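Per your request, structure below.
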């Protein structure tokens, strides 16, 4: 073989090695890009899941708040009813004391 053939083979070999190196580099870069894309998609999915969970939590909290408000309103009504009953019992006690005092006066018991 001649010098030209040796130079051609050497050049072709070097170009092949450079091409193979570039191919490996491109494959690694693409792999890194795909990995990063999957990571970003995963991060977005995580955020979407957290948002959904937060919304479900908010709905549950609103339901609990509505139930608590209903219980509070019922308790207020019961308290108002108890106050009315106390007022009526006090009035009945005053009337009873008045009648008892009148009866004692009639009987002459001091």
């Amino acid at each position: 073989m001649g010098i030209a053939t040796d130079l051609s083979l050497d050049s072709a070999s070097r170009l092949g090695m450079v091409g193979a190196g570039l191919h490996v580099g491109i494959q690694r870069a693409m792999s890194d890009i795909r990995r990063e894309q999957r990571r970003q998609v995963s991060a977005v999915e995580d955020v979407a899941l957290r948002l959904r969970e937060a919304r479900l939590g908010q709905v549950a909290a609103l339901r609990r708040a509505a139930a608590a408000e209903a219980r509070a309103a019922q308790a207020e009504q019961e308290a108002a009813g108890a106050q009315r009953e106390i007022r009526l019992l006090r009035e009945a006690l005053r009337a009873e004391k008045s009648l008892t005092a009148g009866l004692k006066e009639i009987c002459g018991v001091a």
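The first helix runs from residue 3 to 107.

Regards,
D.
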